TrEMBL record:
It comes from the Bacteria. This is Uncharacterized protein.
């Protein structure tokens, strides 16, 4: 099962599909398609090193593109959000991929500060982010996606 929790809300995704491209580079890019109630939402980032096979993804370090994270969480909350994972001094979400029944597991926990100007939450405290996604590896492209 794939889930994302932010603050006191949790969303479950019917499926998660990972596509990696620029695999021949030292740092590859990835897109994760998430099926939420029939709608496809996206998360993106980079993976180090570029994988030569799906098995090579296990233990690789992924970094989440924070703009993609804001877009995903904003779509789920149905309001704009700017998150600062691990606080404004760090402002990064990175972790290592683990094996999962479908392929790879993207899992991370972080306390997130957020842009108060947007009034996304009804309090002035950081929010907890829990990401636990079981993704099928659908494609590895040596260069750009076709």
């Amino acid at each position: 099962m794939s889930q994302l929790r932010i603050a006191d809300q949790t969303w479950t995704f019917a499926s998660a599909s990972l596509t990696v491209y620029h695999c021949l580079a030292p740092e590859a890019d990835w897109n994760l398609a998430l099926d939420h109630a029939g709608q496809t939402l996206w998360l993106a980032g980079t993976v180090i090193p570029g994988p030569s096979s799906p098995e090579a993804l296990i233990g690789a370090e992924v970094v989440v593109d924070l703009r993609a994270l804001d877009e995903l969480v904003g779509a789920l909350l149905d309001r704009p959000v700017t998150l600062y994972p691990n606080g404004q001094d760090v402002c990064a979400l990175a972790f290592r991929l683990a094996p999962s029944p479908r392929g790879v597991r993207l899992a991370a926990n972080a306390r997130c500060d957020w842009d108060r100007y947007l009034e996304t939450f009804d309090h002035d405290q950081p929010v907890a982010l829990e990401l636990d996604l079981d993704a099928a590896v659908t494609a590895l492209y040596p260069g750009n996606m076709p």
